[in-house]
Amino acid sequence: MDNRPIGVFDSGVGGLTVVNALAKSLPKENIYYVGDTARVPYGNKSKSRVQQYASEITSWLNKKDCKIIIVACNTVSALALKYLNSIFSIPIVGVIESGVSRGIQINQNNKIAVLGTSATIRSNAYGKKIKAAKPEILVISQACPLFVPLAEEGWNEGKVPMQIAAHYLANIKQEGVDTVILGCTHYPLLKRTIRKTLGEKVNLVDSGEAVVKNVILTLERIKGFSSRKEGRIKCYVTDAPSLFDNIASSFCLKKTEQAIQIDL
User: Fold this and answer.
1) Distance (Å, rounded) from C-alpha 128 to C-alpha 159?
2) CA–CA separation, 71 vs 21, rounded Å?
3) Whose C-alpha in 108, 115, 187, 241 is 20 to 30 A from the C-alpha of 131?
4) Quick check: 216 pLDDT over 80?
5) What is the share, in percent, of the chain residues with pLDDT greater than 70?
6) Alpha carbon separation from 4 to 1, 69, 219 (Å, rounded)
7) Is 237 helix (H, G, I), strand (E, B) or coil?
8) Chain-centre distance of CA 129, in angstroms?
9) Adjacent-strand bridge partners of 174
10) Distance CA 4, CA 223 (A)
């Protein structure tokens, strides 16, 4: 047994959707979450800058003696996961492979759409992995940069989000895609708006939920499950803890401790 915490990080509050999924499946685990709220969003940053930010946060969590780190950010998973694994010995799990596996599993018409930040879509990380696994699938990639600020501000439904979603998703709807991978951990907050736009028959894949299976497999391999009766969720941010606390409850159903501001 290993009672050390699980580390999770993202550019802002979006990664709490992953924390929520972890807390449901692994209720005995302590979870340390870092939201880089001072530098959100990552989707418009260069690869070198994303790698810098990701390595700084990973180093901080490593010093907190985390037993595994989950990169709850698709942009970091696309641009920096390989880099992180090359410089840290701790197990580090990203969200992209999990989302791809789930998307291919449930897809029926060989058409999969990927929604993500500009950086994630430019990297084509999802498209490459989907094609490597099943070349016959048509992959439609769509950057949705305004979805992150909408989620961060709590604008998940209403006229403005619907108008933005209609603009971004028009081509996907026209193509008759039956599976859409939400390639950003902020996007599950907009599920209802996305589903209203695309229709109820479209399958939405939450890559954050899918990554939990990989985490459980990793903990089994390293014999890393906690023996606690109940775990706690500690949150750390790089700016404005009060703003983070105000919106955290909409992302994570389990109560989180009051956020603490840190310097990286």
Assistant:
1) 35
2) 14
3) 187
4) yes
5) 100
6) 9, 11, 12
7) strand
8) 17
9) none
10) 12
- 204-231: average pLDDT: 91
Block residue for tokens 């499946």: 25
The two three-digit tokens of residue 146, written as one number:
């305004």
- pLDDT at residue 185 is higher than 90: no
Q: Look at the alpha carbons of 220, 221, 227, 232 in this order and tell me if their dihedral is positive or negative.
A: negative
In 10 A of CB 217, how many CB atoms? 10
At the topology level, CATH places domain 96-207 in Rossmann fold (3.40.50)
Q: Is the dihedral of CA 39, 44, 49, 50 positive or negative?
A: positive
**What mean pLDDT do residues 238-250 have?**
86
Q: Where in the chain is the domain with CATH 3.40.50.1860?
A: 6-94+209-261, 96-207
In the chain, DSSP assigns E strands to 6-10, 31-35, 68-71, 92-93, 111-116, 138-143, 179-183, 203-206, 233-237, 260-261
Q: Domain 6-94+209-261 classified CATH 3.40.50.1860?
A: yes
Q: How confident is the model at residue 70 (pLDDT cuts 50, 70, 90)?
A: very high
Rg (CA), the chain: 17
Distance, CA of 147 to CA of 169 (rounded, Å):
12
Q: pLDDT (tens digit, 9 = 90+) per residue, 120-172? A: 899 999 999 999 999 999 999 999 999 988 988 888 899 999 999 999 999 99
- Active-site residue numbers? 73, 184
Closest alpha carbon to 69 in 48, 52, 91: 91
**Mean pLDDT value of segment 56-62:** 98
Q: Give me the residues paired with residue 235 across strands.
A: 33
- Predicted confidence band of residue 253 (pLDDT cuts 50, 70, 90): low
